[in-house]
Amino acid sequence: MDLNDKRRDVAREICRSYDINLSVEALHAFANILVPFKVLRGHKLVAEGEVCNHMFYVERGMVLQHYTKNGTSVTEHISHEGDMVICIESFFLRQPSHIVASMIEPGLVYGIPYDEMHTIASHSFELCQLIFRFYQRSLIISQRKADIMRFETAKERYIRTLKENPEIIRRAPLHNVASFLQMTPETLSRVRSQVTEKDMK
């Protein structure tokens, strides 16, 4: 399969994930701007102080978004296959990012460049709708996480993640999972030991 065919397949995957149908012309325009990045573990998709110039669709692998506070790394988000990674403030405002996006695992991601994305959207209402879906889902995910952290206990947060996003629990390093759930590794270990089959129903 050549690169153009692969990019069209990935474009279709993204559209399915976001429940939107594009015409053949719009699909090809979208596919043509996708940039493949085959990356190793530890590679930074976005470094601190760098402007986030792409949204990244994760085809394979796991991505950690984190920042440093008082000398400690804090996990903001963990993404994997089928997810979109975006450092929202930097991407929207074209400002240096405080958030680092780096690979926990080696993988393959497809970048959606800021400039090219807005260029094709200026010529297509369909692609405007697709971009709106990207932004909409990203904002909803951020709001849901904020609500969960405000209103749920440590055990409830862990169980919700285990049910809704088990790949994070299974594949991400323990200290990153704990930070993502806003608890210490010791609390996470204690919570894990308390979860029963009844809790998972």
Describe the 3D structure.
This protein is α+β, with helices and mostly antiparallel strands and 201 residues long. The chain folds into two domains: 149 residues, Jelly Rolls (Sandwich); 50 residues. It is built from nine helices and eight strands. A four-stranded antiparallel sheet has the order 1-8-3-6. Strands 2-7-4-5 form a four-stranded antiparallel sheet. Helix 1 crosses helix 2 and helix 4 crosses helix 5. The longest helix has 27 residues. The protein is globular. The mean pLDDT is 93.
- The CATH homology group name of the largest domain: Jelly Rolls
**What is Rg?**
18 Å
Give start-end ranges of low-pLDDT stretches. none
> How many strands?
8
Number of helices: 9
CATH topology description of the largest domain: Jelly Rolls
The CATH class of the largest domain is: Mainly Beta
Strand order of the largest sheet: 1-8-3-6
- Class from secondary-structure proportions: alpha+beta
Q: Strand portion, in percent? A: 15-25%
CA(first)-CA(last) distance: 43 Å
Give the proportion of residues in helices: 40-55%
Total individual domains: 2
CATH level-two architecture of the largest domain: Sandwich
Tell me about the largest β-sheet. 4 strands, antiparallel
In sequence order, what are the helices and strands, one letter per element? HHEEEEEEHEEHHHHHH
Shape: globular
Mean pLDDT: 93
Comma- or semicolon-separated keywords:
single chain, 201 residues, alpha+beta, Jelly Rolls, 2 domains, four-stranded antiparallel beta sheet, 9 helices, 50% helix, 21% strand
